[in-house]
Amino acid sequence: MDQPVDLIGVPMDLGADRRGVDMGPSAIRYGGLRDQLESLGIDCTDSGDIGVPQPEHCRSESDIEGEAKYLDATQTVCEQVSERVREIRATETVPLVLGGDHSIAIGTAHGVTDRPTGLLWLDAHADLNTPTTTPSGNVHGMALAAILGEGPFSEMDWAHAPNIRPENVAVVGLRSVDPGERSLLESSPIHAYTMTDIDQRGISTVVREALEAVTTTTDQLAVSLDLDLLDPSEAPGVGTPVKGGASYREAHAAMEIVAETSTDLCSLELVEVNPILDESNRTAELACELAASALGKRVL
């Protein structure tokens, strides 16, 4: 890849039930991300971390119908992420956003939507709950719904990213979908691919099809990788592990295909790394490897 990369850490765990993902950016950096990218000849800088308040200092409840824990604080953080991403994009640099829970994707999406944008969402979960359908109230399970303006998010300018349209979104790796999310997917033009699709058709076919679907009528591509895409045997240190996920090689193949696309990569996210649950930082190190594959690393 010819473009330079700028790292942004977002040590956020307000959107999740389980503490620990706030340490994800540090773990990924410690795993050697910058060294791996610079070894590819990529000019890589680090903008440091966005400030995130501790949950003990935040109001948990919100003033909307339904439940969305720490929504006000999440808005504040996502607005900062959006501003930082927008500044980086203005220098023709790719922002590489390190989480933190997946709610930070709301901020990244707003930072890149200066043009029609395709979104590849790699995740065990759909993240399409709204405050009225969520079983938990955790905003990391609503991130994609917020970006697409579903439910009460349609009235929240900080959340709804109008340049990302449902027909230009593909979710790959699904294996844990709540009833409200299933209903939305059945009525939406979102392109949804389960692990069964990957089992039956192969990761390469699925990812290529997903990328074609989201980039045909868009100018740029955003990629959001939740490390729980992978099976917990490969990535034990994630916020919400689900059995039956992608293998090590399937995840690398997906990222290598991302690198092959001719569409401009406008952002890359690595989220939900939880060092507390990890084994010798192996999930964070895997995140570094996958980012390198998405940005052009090959065996030969």
UniProtKB/TrEMBL annotation:
Gene Ontology MF: a single term: manganese ion binding
Top EC class, one word: hydrolase
Reactions performed catalytically: L-arginine + H2O = urea + L-ornithine
Residues involved in Mn(2+) binding: H102, D123, H125, D127, D226, D228
Gene Ontology process terms (BP): arginine metabolic process; urea cycle
Entry-linked Pfam families: Arginase
Signal found in the keyword field: no
Listed SUPFAM superfamilies: Arginase/deacetylase
Classification via InterPro entries: Arginase (IPR014033), Ureohydrolase (IPR006035), Ureohydrolase_dom_sf (IPR023696), Ureohydrolase_Mn_BS (IPR020855)
Keywords, sorted A to Z: Arginine metabolism, Hydrolase, Manganese, Metal-binding
Free-text remark on how the cofactor is bound: Binds 2 manganese ions per subunit.
Pathway annotation from the record: Nitrogen metabolism; urea cycle; L-ornithine and urea from L-arginine: step 1/1
Cofactors named for this entry: Mn(2+)
Keyword Acetylation: no
EC number of this enzyme: 3.5.3.1
GO cellular component terms, semicolon-separated: cytoplasm
Family: Belongs to the arginase family.
PANTHER family attached to this UniProt entry: ARGINASE
Designated name of the protein: Arginase
